[in-house]
């Protein structure tokens, strides 16, 4: 597949016109028995003991203001320590997965560790919306148990619906028992609970939370697909399974059925204490190409603007001239990622120090 930006855009546009929502790889992956060599249940506090950073770096991480993380903070502090897993979920039309691959490269270009975005088993950048949402919930549990940091999810189009569906899975809306999913074996483990890496207590997968979720272009025609029927009437309700949720809509989006002035597209309702935001993107943005953002990190003026962006600027910030489609989305998402990267690292360090103090 060519990587030339113009040819890639032409190929994707043609795919949208030709296949629309007719397919996209709904095949279910075969279930296999996990290889015993990759099925290892961590001991209590194993994640805390595995963090190999010195006290000075811990102090610098703890001193960060998550709402004001600068480019220097990312390069000199956060990138030197642990980072939570980011789960990208692409749309359902082939080959729109390339757009979330571009988003992954954007995040890596801004300083996020690439190996915390790419799948630990096969190295892919993003997950399909045709994967079982309970499988992704089990994947989240597997990572939290080993990393000591709660993952984040970023979804595009049908992948945005899937991200919200995973939150409903974690909240127990579809089933009360979810197996832990081992990404190295690409199979479920024979258990539905984990050892909490921060407390050492056993807890079920259902009830776990993630730190940050953002979705863009979710809804519309994709809700007509059988694999998303369960989300009809649920998409705009965000369970108390995430700390912060941002829902983006494009001012004119025929695929997501958003028309000018349609504020319902960003009217997400929270349950519990979840912080929920709705952000309307410009009407001239293109539904398919919003996440195609990797070039933004390579342009100095645009990169500096994105680094300086704050969530409070949404609706007011004016990006550099010719920054192109998706820059406002990219800036807001990067701010959210930096914020929760810092929060999760601080949470891990505080738990590590608390355990160390108890063992003295």
Layout of secondary structure:
Elements: H1 5-19, H2 46-50, H3 55-62, H4 71-76, E1 86-89, H5 97-109, E2 126-127, H6 133-147, E3 152-156, H7 158-170, E4 181-182, E5 187-188, E6 193-195, E7 202-204, E8 210-216, E9 237-238, E10 242-250, E11 269-270, E12 275-281, H8 300-308, H9 327-358
Parallel strand pairs: 1-2, 1-3, 3-8, 8-10, 9-11, 10-12
Antiparallel strand pairs: 4-5, 6-7
What features would you describe in this structure?
- It is a single chain.
- The chain has 360 residues and is an alpha/beta fold.
- The N and C termini lie far apart (57 Å).
- The chain is built from nine helices and twelve strands.
- The strands form four sheets. The protein has a six-stranded parallel beta sheet, with helices on both faces. A two-stranded antiparallel ribbon has the order 4-5. A two-stranded antiparallel sheet has the order 6-7.
- The N terminus is likely disordered.
- Helix 8 packs across helix 9.
- The protein has one domain: Alpha/Beta hydrolase fold, catalytic domain (Rossmann fold, 3-Layer(aba) Sandwich), CATH 3.40.50.
